[in-house]
Amino acid sequence: MATYAFAIAVERGLERGCCELIREAARLHDVGRLYLDPSLAQRPTEALSAAELSEAERSRAAGAKLAWGAGVPERACEWVAAASERYDGSGPAGKRGEEIPLAGRITRVACAYVEVVERTAAAPPLVRDEPRALALSELRGAAGTTLDGQVVEAMAAIIARAAPTPA
To answer: Which 8-state DSSP code applies to residue 33?
Structure first.
C-alpha cells in the first residue's frame, strides 16, 4: 500500500522528499489499529457498521499520536490522521476536499485500492480475473464521496501503465 501511495505522489508531480515522507506516513496509517478491538481490525471495511467504521477511523488519530511519540515528523503524523477523512467531509474531523492534506487523500486511495484487490483475491474465478479493473471501478464510484477523484485518476494512470499488454 505504501508503494502505491509513493507512486501516486510521484504521478501527481510532488518532490522526491515529499513522496518519500508520504510513503512513510502510508506505512504507518494503520498503526492506530493497535487501539482497536481485534474483531474490528480483522474485518473488511464494508462489513463494519457505521459506529464501528467511525471507531476504526478515529483509531488513525490515536495512531498519529503514537507515531509522533516514536519520532515520526509532525507533518507525516498529520497525514496519518488525515487518511481517515472522507472527501465529502463526513470523516472523523469533518475536513472536506482540499482541507484534507493531499498525503492523506493519497493514502486513502492507495489503501482503498489494496483493500478491493485483496478482497477480490478470495472471490470466484471470474471476478479474480480482473481485480485491477474491479478495484478501479469501485474507486471511481467513490470519487467525490470518500475519495478524491483526481487522486483516483492518478492511481488509474499508474495501474494502466502496469497492466500487461495483450499479446
So the answer is: G
